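Bench log, entry 3. Co-assembly request; chain sequences pasted below exactly as received.
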Amino acid sequence: MLADLWAAYQSSVGFAMVNVFFALSTYAVLSAGVLSFASVSYAAFGGFIGAQLVLNTGISPLLALPVSAVAGALLAYAVALLFLRLDGHWMALASLALVLMTRVVVLNAPTLTGGVNGLSLPVDLSLATLTVLLLLLMLVFHRLSGSWYGIAVRAVREDPAVAASLGMPARRLQTIAFVISGAVGGAGGMLLAAMLQFISPDTYFINIAFTMIAAVVLGGSYHWAGAVAGAFVFTALPVVMQAVLPQIQDVANGAALLAIMVFLPRGLIDPRAWRLRHAR
Amino acid sequence: MLLFVEQLVNGCALGSLYALFAVGFGLVFATLGILNAAHGTYASWAAIAALAAVQHLGAPFPLAVAAGVVAGGLLALLVDQIAFQPLRGRGGPAKEGGMLGALITSIAFWIMLDSLAGFATGQQSLNFPADSYPARMLHLGALPLPSMQLVTIAAMLLATAGIHALVRHSRFGAAMRAVGWNGAAAALGGVNPRVVIVVTAFLAGATSGLAGVLGGISTQNVSFTLGEGLMLKGFAAVVVGGYDDVRGAAIAGVALGILEVMSAQYLSTSLRDGITYALLLGFLLLRPRGLFGRAAFLRA
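Structure output for the full assembly:
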C-alpha cells in the first residue's frame, strides 16, 4: 500500500525538490527586498547550457551542475547591473518582461536550444542525489541567514534608508542577492532538465515564474524554510486536488491558494509569529 | 503603397486592443499597486458574456458590447473585493505594500477564472455570429476599411481620452492619484479610499472587457486564450508606455500593434515577437519610466 503510494507520487516529490531550488532562487532576491521573476531566465540559461554540455561531452549531469550555476550567476549579475536602478514596481515589471523575452531568445537560438523542437536529455537523476543536493542547499541558506550578509540584507529589506545610514551598502548587497539567486536558479534549471529529460521554450516560461513566486509567498517570505515548505505545498496541491476533485481541480487549486493567502497573509512559516509566541 | 496603408490600419486596430488592455492594467497598477495576473481573464469573460447576450437574448451590437463591458467591470469588482480587499492594510513592509499577497491571490483567480472559462466555452473557441456585428466594408477611394476596425479604433480613442480626462482633470482623478501615492495620507486628506478602489477596479475591468469583446469579434476567437494573448502584449505596452500615464500606455499599445503587423508583412513572422520584446528591453534600459514618465523624487 505504502509502496504503491510512493511509486505513484515519486516523481511529484522530485518535482517538489526542484521547485524548492526555484523558490529559494526567488527568495534570495526577495529577502533583499526585490520582487523579481528573472529566476526563470537564469533557469533557462543554466538548463540549456548544462544540457548542451551533457549532450556534447557526455559528462555526468552532476558535473554540469556547477557550470549551470555559474552561468546563471553571471546572467544574474548582468541583470542586477541593468535592472537594480529601477525602483520596486518597475523592477517587477522589467523582470516579467525578461521572462517573456527569454522565450523568444530560446525560440530563435536553435543551435543552443533546439528551437521549437526543444532538446531531449537522456540522463538519469536519482531521488537520493536530488535529496543530498537539496540538503546541501538548505544548509547554505541556513548558514547565510545567520551571517553578516543575512542580517544586513534583512535590514535592507525592512528599510533601505536606515540600512544605508548604518553603513550597509544596499545596492551591493542586492547585487550579491541577485548572484546567489542566479546560481541557485541556474542549478535548478539544470535539475529540472534532468528530471524532465526534455526541455523546450515552454519549459521555462510564465507558469514557472508564477509557481516560484507563489511557492515563496505561500510558504512565507521571511525565512528560507518558508520557500522550502511553500514549494512542497504548491507542488502537492494540484496532485492532491487531482486525486480528490478531478473534475474541478484547477478551480479547487485556485480556491485553496486564495484561502491560504487570505487567512495566512504572511505565509505558512512566519518567524515573527514564533517570536511573538516566545515573547509571551 | 496601398498595401502599406491597409496594413497600417490593421496595425492600428490590433494595437487598439492592446492599448485598451494596457490602460486598464496600468490603472490598477498605478492606483491600487497591484500586479494583476487575472486581468486577462476579464477580457475572456467579457467576450463570453457578450456572446451569451447575442445568442440567448438576441442583443444588438451596442448592447452586446455594453453587456461585455459591464460584465468585465463587475468581475473585476468581485475579484478585487474577494482577493485584494482582505489583504489591504496588513502584511509586508510598506515598500512591498502587500503587492506580493495580492499578486498571489490574483494568480489564484487567474487559475480559477481561466479554467471556468474553459468550461463555459466547452474547451473550444467560439465565434460571434456574422450578423451580430458591423461587418460592412467601407471604401475610401481604393482603400478598403472594415467597419469593425474603425469601431475598435474609435472605441479605444474614446475610452483613453475619457479615462485620461478623469484621471488628470477631475477631482475624482486627483483622489485616485492620491490613493495611488499613499492610501493612508489620502484618507487623512478626506478621500474615501474604499470608493476610489471600487471605482478603479470597475473601470479597469470594463476597459479590459471592451478589449475582450472587440478582440473576440475581430479575431474570431472567444475562449480563455483570448485574454492570455491580450495579457502578454498589453503588458509589453504598459512597460513601454509607462503605467502612471494613460496616454503612454495607449500610444505604446497602438505602436506595438503597428510594429507587429508591419514586421509580419515586411520582415518575417518568426521575428515578430522578437522585435516586440527587443523594443521592450530597449525601453527598459533607455527609458525605464515609460514614454511620459518623469523621474520621481522620494524622501526616505
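Chain A has 13 helices and two strands. The mean pLDDT of chain A is 88.
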